[in-house]
Amino acid sequence: MLSSLAARRRFSDLSEQEILALAISSEEDDGHIYRSYAQRLRADYPATAAVFDGMAIEEDGHRQQLIDLHRSRFGEVIPLIRREHVAGFYARRPVWLMENLSLETIRAEAAAMETQAEAFYLRAAQSSSDAATRRLLGDLAAAEAGHHKSAKDLEKKHLSGDERNEEDLGARRQFILTWVQPGLAGLMDGSVSTLAPIFATAFATQDTWTTFLVGTAASVGAGISMGFTEAAHDDGVLSGRGSPWKRGLASGVMTTLGGMGHALPYLIPDFWTATAIAMVVVFVELWAIAWIQNRYMETPFLRAALQVVLGGALVFAAGALIGGG
Hints:
Layout: H1 2-6, E1 9-10, H2 16-41, H3 46-74, E2 86-87, H4 103-127, H5 131-158, H6 161-193, H7 195-205, H8 208-233, H9 244-260, H10 271-296, H11 301-324
Parallel strand pairs: 1-2
Helix pairs in contact: 2-3, 2-4, 2-5, 3-5, 4-5, 6-8, 6-9, 6-10, 6-11, 7-8, 7-11, 8-9, 10-11
């Protein structure tokens, strides 16, 4: 790592030819990123994919202009220099990470790419004492600023208000199917199903440490079970619910959190204090579940609250009666 950092050049040490070469490679990389975005989105969001196709063509045009300028000033051989060779140069997110990016995040990434490039060239131009270098960097900044207008024009051409709304609704639906729905199921299972064993243990033993251990075991065990069940029962290909591993992760983690919420108070040595806090936590968990159902699943709030709170109260009562008996 240290040797890699030491091998990087400072931007102030680059010659004008190297700066031009860096701009050429950067435009090439950005064009590749835009094409990758388009490929990733084409099946589900064709209008946005068309925008990125157009932006990639714009990058190709700017790269060719830079190559022509290099050819006229320095000849045919372009030095091999890339972003990672220059200390402090703006970085790009690796393309292979885009599988985990939402539609809106990809759009924001594209806007940030142009903004970063423009801001970098402007700052570099201001810090340069050489007139020719300042002019060159200023031209590059102007080119990047021009990309913003081109992107807006492409959006108007390919992405109407109705198309954008339709794509946004599709992205929201996919987010709900992949993350919210399994996560909500896990939170409900973890919050409700662990009430009986935790409070039965609490009232039967009145030992906070034992209650905490039982609660932790029940929460972690339920989380593992729910996670693997969610991942195994639907591969997402026909249902369109997304990656089974993402859904399994959401379900498993939220199940564990749901149970641990009212197990953690039993780290407090005093039994009645721990129990009172645990009951407050249960109340908050159940109302949070009702809110999520209303917010994302469009379940009427009163109906969701009645179902969740009534169900939780019955399970809690069962655990308390069994443990107290």
